[in-house]
# Entry
Amino acid sequence: MSRDISPEEFAHEFGPEFTNSIDPHPYGMPAKPVKPGLTTRGKAALAITAAVIGGTTLIGYQAYSSNTAENEAKAQEIAYKQQLLELEKLKVLNQASKTSSGDSKARQQAIDTCVKDSRDLVGKTIGTSLRDIVDACQAQYTNPTATGADLKATDSTSSTSTGGGLNSGLVIGGVVLAGGLTLAMRRRTAA
# Structure
């Protein structure tokens, strides 16, 4: 038969066995009390680290923003120069079309005069038709001036040249290759 024991009775009978007496300082009392947190040296190290990171971030941001502004200015300048070149090209093409239209009028008049002068040969020579005379006169008075299409073809061929400059990727690759060869030779001679 079991009997219910109240907590007071249990503590009185079995108290010494079940007491929680853990010594907070098993190796003795410390010489001076330990303060929670960082020491002054740790606080100074954190402050210096934060200042260095903040300064580096500020300088990096300023460099980034100045480079961005400079790149945008260069892009706008290049776009402006391209527009000026396009305008100049349109002026040249317009001038060429004006001169070619004047030349084509003079050419057409010369062809008409040639056809009128040679019209009487149509019935007199064997196998000569009016179309043959017109073709012969057109071949005689060809247009020696360049047209706008000729200028466009010349422009497209001149703009595709590379200029013979060095490729930056090629230079970087050469430097990396030279460095790798130097390291390999040093290791070989050291071994």
